[in-house]
Design goal:
alpha+beta, two-stranded antiparallel ribbon, 6 strands, 23% helix, globular
């Protein structure tokens, strides 16, 4: 059975791009639930009218994510990125969730030894 991934998006006004980070969902469900709570809290306290980060409820199989990554638009960063490994939910997202800026979510994943 292939892995499943959940979509996390970042709208980066500085670069004028939107990036989707497809986070490995399998094995990370609890950490992702905790992350969603952190995001909700950060969004409530954000100074901006539009919070740039969204953890959707879109869950896709690896085959779909692989195709999205394959055909992703290239800019400052690819429009679709596959993020695999063990997710460790941070204790904080920083002020205005700045620890997530420009793909910072990927720093919270640890590769699993094959």
């Amino acid at each position: 059975m292939s892995a499943q991934f959940i979509q996390f998006t970042e709208v980066n006004d500085n670069e004028g791009e939107t990036w989707s980070f497809w986070l490995q969902y399998d094995g990370n469900q609890q950490a992702i639930d905790d992350f969603r709570d952190l995001l909700d809290e950060a969004e409530e306290h954000a100074d901006d009218d539009e919070f740039p980060y969204t953890l959707t409820h879109n869950i896709e199989p690896e085959s779909v994510v692989d195709k999205l990554v394959e055909y992703a638009d290239e800019g400052y960063m690819a429009s679709h990125n596959k993020v695999m490994g063990v997710f460790t939910c941070p204790d904080t997202l920083g002020e205005d969730a700045d620890y997530l800026y420009k793909g910072g979510i990927t720093k919270h994943f640890t590769a699993v030894a094959q």
